[in-house]
Each structure stands twice: as structure tokens, then as C-alpha cells.
Amino acid sequence: MLMKHLLSASALSAFLSLSASSTTLPPPEYQKLTHDIYKQLIEINTSYSTGATTPAAQAVAERLKAEGFPASDIQVLGAAPHKMNVVVRYHGTGQRKPLLLLAHLDVVEAKRSDWSMDPFLLTEKDGFYYGRGTIDDKAQAAIWIANLIRYKREGFKPDRDLIVALTADEEGGGPYNGVVWLLKNHRDLIDAEFCLNEGGWGYMVDGKRVSNNVQVSEKYVGNYRLEVKNKGGHSSLPVPDNAIYRLAEALVRLSKYNFPVQTNDVTKAFLEQMAKIQPEPVSSQMKAAAAGSTDAMEKLSAGSTQFNATLRTTCVATMLDGGHALNALPQTAGAMVNCRILPEMKPEEVLATLKKVVADDQVSITVGREMDAGPPSPMRPDLFRAASRITDSMWPGVLAIPTMVMGATDGLYLRSAGIPTYGIQGIFIDDFRAHGRDERVGINDFYEGSVFLYDLVKSLAGN
């Protein structure tokens, strides 16, 4: 059911009652609970630079205590006073190692002047929830907490502990990253057999659900600064060797370069599964690409930015700076280039390629903070059986498909530390606005995701 108008508090109550008739939506009391937690988190500014995660972590802790969770099972801690994480443990029988449920509390910056509404208010409009973090990643954070409360109220006794960790600074990384800090300082709090995380959104095309993606691998990030320096001079006396022009020429060369296409075990499996539900000629191209055809990979890449990013390393200029005065020739011009690197490619290979493409020894290239590639997670049969069964039950004919995401998540750190991590949400999105203006998620899609994750965790935790 799509809502055509902004919901008032009373209209929300009516909507919840009507929605209860659908087996893909939670009971009304848990829709309201999930909504209230979601709203509370969205309306706390946890932006990487201008906000803080601590108020959100504390709010979650207080809500859990009010529900009767023992204070000893709730930890609010972190790398800095304004960068706290919250970790809660729901005890099972201990027959198996814990299951970690991860989401991050921080969000990217959002300026009111850029948005058509306040980014730090949860706005309900035309069947969507709007607000910074509605997709990335406060939807999953709210769902984990609401479902954990529901398990407790229902007396669910899993055969493994459930650990929910809502962490700081996934978006910015650096010294305050919650997952890195917890692994280094309190691994016992989050140690688990495996983890469920963000990064596996459902894929939609023109409003039709296509696949429920399960992230088992991801690219990693490399940032490179290209810089040109020269002596400059007075702007009334132009010279051929202009730092800005030289840098611009290097960036144009980079813009025209494509890294080679290739597949790995995860992207092969993705292409094989997607080929089952795609029309021709795309289906045949996917089958051929999965079998190793470079020509088919190139055709897929040419027709889709998503496939292009799936099949090759990409590098793109994201920031520029240069010059020091309106009436002076620039002495310095610089650009930041952000690369999303296939796990099989080494950082030194990327740097060597950039130098070859730029082909100018006057353009220096320096490496920023690098994130090394992590191993893929194994294709757990129990996870894929459960995800496939629940997906088909909720959305008949939709497949649960393994994917490698083009972005980056904290799953990389967990995989590198020996905790296999899977991005899966069951929230379908056809207009991906994370990190952008007027970020949003469909209201029904959000609540269906909460049901999907509720059932998935129960299936994986057993009783």
C-alpha cells in the first residue's frame, strides 16, 4: 500500500492497522516500534564531521534498558567521547557461536540548503520515508533493535547469542571507526561465527523486484592525489606551462581510460543467477561473461554503470583545488581521485596504472589512506537456503543472489579478522539516493525488510 500524503500521527496509526492484513508486514505494534526507533535515530545528527554518534548510542541503550535488557548486556563505548558505539547481547542457549548483527549509526553530511526538506527530520511523503540515513544505514539499525525487542517480548530462545552492534564512523573511517576499534580493544563483545550487515539491498527496476542481493564480497577504496606545481607568475603574462591546464589534461586522459574487465568467483555466481531472470540479449551476455568472455563483459559494461563497476576497477576525480589569487598564475593545482578496486587487484598495480595513464612526470601522484582488500565470505549454504526460502515466500519468483558491492562497508574489517560477513537487508530500492539529496526509502519496502530480517535471524539462530 502506497501512501499519497504526509502522515499525521493519527494517520500513521490507521496505516499500521490497515497494513497488518499483509503477511509481508509486521504486526501493528511492531511497525510502530520500528517506526519510533527509526524516527529517533534519523532525528539525531550523527554526521561524520558535524555530528556525533554518542547521543544515538545512548538513546538505544536507554530504550533497551526500559525493555528489561540487563545493563550488563549493554555496552556504550568507543574511540572518543563523541564517537561511541552501542553493543547489546541477547542470550541464547550457547549451543552455537554468536551471530553478529551490524549497522552503523553515522551518516554522511547533509546540508539543509541542498535538500527540499530538513534532512534530520523523518518525513513521510508519497509512500516514502525521507531523511539522512533512511537508507544508509539507520533503517537496518532501527530494524535490528526493534526485532531484538520483539524477540525478547515473544520469549524467543535462540541456540546462539545474538549480538547487535551499532557503530561509529563507517562513512569516514579513520581513528574512530567503531568496528576497527572494537576488534582491537573489545573483540570479545562482537566475536561471532558470522555477521549480517548492510550492503545487500533488494534490486528493483521500474518498480518491479528483480533480486534480493546478498553481499559476500566488496571492492576496496584507494584515494590518490594528483598535483602539479610550478613557479606561477603574473596573470597578465600567461605561459604555456599552466599548472591547472596540465592537471586538466591529465584528468581528461584518466577519464578516457578503462581498467580491464574481469570476473571473480562472486561476480561469476552473480552473473549466472541474474542470467536466469534477464531478457535477451542481456541473459546470453551474462552467461557468456560468467564463462569468461571479455567481449560479453565489455558489452555489459557499456550498457550499464552498475555492470561496469562490477566488472572492473574504476577511478574517478571527485575533488579539485588550484590557484591562490585571481590575478596570479597558479602555482599549485590538485585533484583527488577516488578508486574502487577489485579485490584481486593490488594497490601498487593501481598506482602504476595511474602513472602510466597520466603519462606526465610533472603530475605527482600520492597515495592517501589505503584500505587493503579483504577475502570474500564463503557461500554459507544455511544462509542462502534461508534467504532464498524467505525471499520466495515474501516475493514469489524473486531470487536471492550473491553479489560483490561496488562501495565499501565495515564488513571488510570483519572478514579480514576472520568473521565472515554478509550484506543482506531485504529492503528493495529502485532509486538509490544514499549519500545524496533527499535520501529516501519506500515505507512498505522498509517494513517488509524488517519482516525479512526478523525471519532470517530466527531461521539462522534456531531454537
What does this structure look like?
The chain is an alpha/beta fold. Among the domains are: 9-199 and 409-461, Aminopeptidase; 260-312, no CATH class. It is 36% helix and 23% strand. The chain contains 15 helices and 19 strands. It has helices at residues 9-19, 28-42, 54-66, 138-154, 178-185, 187-190, 243-255, 265-274, 282-290, 294-303, 305-311, 347-358, 381-394, 411-416, 443-461, and strands at 74-78, 84-90, 96-104, 123-125, 128-130, 160-167, 194-197, 202-205, 208-218, 220-229, 233-234, 314-322, 328-329, 332-341, 363-367, 399-405, 421-423, 428-429, 440-442. The strands form five sheets. A six-stranded mixed beta sheet has the order 1-2-6-3-7-17. It has a four-stranded mixed beta sheet with strand order 16-9-8-18. A hairpin with a 5-residue loop joins strand 1 (74-78) and strand 2. Helix 1 (9-19) packs across helix 2 (28-42). The longest helix is centred in the last third of the chain and has 19 residues, at 443-461. It is globular. 44% of the residues are buried.
